[in-house]
Design a protein that fits this description.
This protein has a 7-stranded parallel beta sheet with strand order 3-2-1-4-5-8-9, with helices on both faces. The chain has a 6-stranded parallel beta sheet with strand order 12-11-10-13-14-15, sandwiched between helices. The chain has a two-stranded antiparallel ribbon with strand order 6-7. It is an alpha/beta fold. The chain has 2 domains: about 270 residues, Rossmann fold (3-Layer(aba) Sandwich), CATH 3.40.50.2000; about 170 residues, Rossmann fold. Strand 8, helix 9 and strand 9 form a beta-alpha-beta unit. The longest helix has 24 residues. The structure holds uridine-5'-diphosphate.
């Protein structure tokens, strides 16, 4: 049954107003906006909040595609007042102080609005990296819950570090944790495998666990069957986990939300026509789609290895190289590959992954990209870069068995062109790649089941909405 975003469900809970507060980065905005749309489809009013730093790059969000019960607010994070440079620690603290003030102002504004009585503001869902929002909200008489944009497995690893049940540096060759595969150092999130690399991000990541005993639920953009064992274990530790994903626009999953065709808030301008026309001219399953997400800052050497790995694999390829990265491409590369390969600065990734011409996804294993490939049944070749990506890569290869991870040369630290080409050939091969395609299609089916009416994620969202209505 298709639902207009604003059409209330029969017998649904009374309308409440819920804030969804995302960090101003693409990989956090996308899943949180999708969660917001699902809440609206269950009859709630939602304001998605992020900070002005994102509004600089977001072209005015299209209100019709968002629906009038889904609003967008940009608040100050103090970045406009910053003169000169700041350390990462300073910017995290400045963000917390300024965003706290802005959030309180927004709450007051909503409470003073003319329809605040019919549709009271009751809840704030905030990115897990801002645990302080819970206290801010509760001091205003509103409840709140964190939203993780990583897998539950990654959150579980940090939980063990926080509880002292995983000691760093590792005491043996592998980290052993209940229900998790043995993890070698390079399978751990990079902030843990190399604690010196980004101390400020490590602090931010571990801070997420500082008050996790307080909220009554903890949201994850993942789904029950994908992380069944880890979920069971975390529940046994009294974590009130609610898997509400995968958080893709409905048209790519259950098709129940009318007009939910894309994420709606892109920080980059996609070359839609160029990419889609090019893909239309290719045979089914013949193209490698390569992208390293919205943040990756690869070295010139790694970009070169990628370029020749793609070229030498002998398959056609569509490669997203963001504008800021394009001067790292080898000289004349685009002319050399003309016809065989296309480089674009951004694309509509979901449309690309869903295109029948795409046979595999060469990815950095950002959590959204990983979930998108799993949900659309596309096998992967993975080159994790940092943060949670190494752990996602481990699961792609050894747990979900939907692809292969490119070995990194121990001396140079690079994923070499030879290794990249070998892995692409393995996954794209009609016979050798069959097992990856079959496993991917199975995950696609399970992802759909989770968000369909009565599916595990659908039920979790419905239960949450009912709880909020009782507040
Ligand atoms: N994305 C996109 N077009 C592109 C590249 C990426 O729309 O050309 C989207 C992708 O679908 C995903 C997000 O950007 O939703 C990237 O998030 P992810 O967690 O994969 O990586 P991050 O950017 O956080 O490293």
């Amino acid at each position: 049954m298709k639902l207009d975003l604003e059409e209330q469900m029969g017998g649904a809970a009374a309308q409440s107003h819920i804030l969804v507060f995302a960090f101003p980065v693409q990989g956090h905005i996308n899943p949180m906006v999708q969660f917001a749309k699902r809440l609206v489809s269950k009859g709630q009013r939602v304001t998605v909040v992020t900070t002005f730093s994102a509004s600089k790059s977001i072209p005015t969000p299209n209100p019709t595609s968002l629906g009038s019960n889904l609003k967008m607010e940009f608040i100050s994070d103090g970045s406009k007042q910053v003169a000169g440079s700041e350390s990462i620690e300073e910017s995290i603290e400045r963000f917390r102080i300024s965003a706290t003030k802005s959030l309180i102002n927004l709450i007051t504004k909503i409470r003073n609005s003319s329809d605040a009585l019919q549709c009271p503001l009751k809840f704030v869902v905030y990115h897990s990296g801002m645990p302080w929002v819970l206290d801010v909200a509760r001091r205003q008489g509103i409840d709140g819950a964190p939203f993780f944009t990583t897998s539950l497995a990654v959150a579980t690893i940090f939980h063990h570090v926080h509880e002292g049940t995983l000691k760093l540096p590792l005491e043996g060759p592998r980290a052993m944790m209940p229900t998790m595969p043995p993890l070698e150092l390079n399978d751990l999130p990079s902030f843990l495998s190399d604690v010196e690399s980004y101390p400020a991000f490590l602090k931010l990541a571990t801070n997420q666990y500082s008050n996790l005993k307080k909220p009554n639920c903890i949201f994850f953009s993942s789904f029950d069957k994908l992380e069944k064992e880890v979920l069971k274990w975390m529940e046994s530790q009294d974590w009130p986990v609610k898997m509400i994903g995968p958080t893709l626009p409905s048209v790519f999953l259950d098709e129940r939300l009318e007009d939910d065709k894309d994420y709606g808030l892109s920080l980059f301008k996609p070359n839609v026509e160029t990419s889609m026309k090019w893909l239309d001219s290719k045979k089914p399953g013949s193209v490698v789609y390569a992208s390293f997400g919205s943040l990756a800052d690869l070295s010139i050497e790694q970009t070169e290895e990628l370029a020749f790995g793609l070229k030498n694999s002998c398959f056609d390829f569509l490669w997203v190289v963001r504008e800021s990265e394009q001067d790292k491409l080898p000289k004349n590369f685009e002319q050399e590959i003309s016809g065989k390969g296309l480089v674009v600065s951004w694309c509509q990734q979901l449309q690309v992954l869903a295109h029948e011409a795409v046979g595999c996804f060469l990815t950095h294993c950002g959590w959204n990209s990983t979930l998108e490939a799993l949900s659309l049944g596309v096998p992967m070749v993975v080159i994790p870069h940092w943060a949670d990506q190494p752990t996602n890569a481990k699961f792609v290869e050894d747990v979900w068995k939907v692809g292969v991870r490119v070995n990194v040369n121990k001396k140079s630290g690079l994923a070499t062109k030879e290794e990249i080409a070998v892995c692409i050939k393995e996954v794209m091969d009609k016979e050798k790649g069959m097992k990856f395609r079959m496993a991917s299609l199975n995950w696609k089916k399970l992802a759909n089941e989770a968000v369909e009416e009565g599916g595990s994620s659908d039920k979790n969202i419905e239960e949450f909405v009912e709880k909020v209505s009782l507040i």
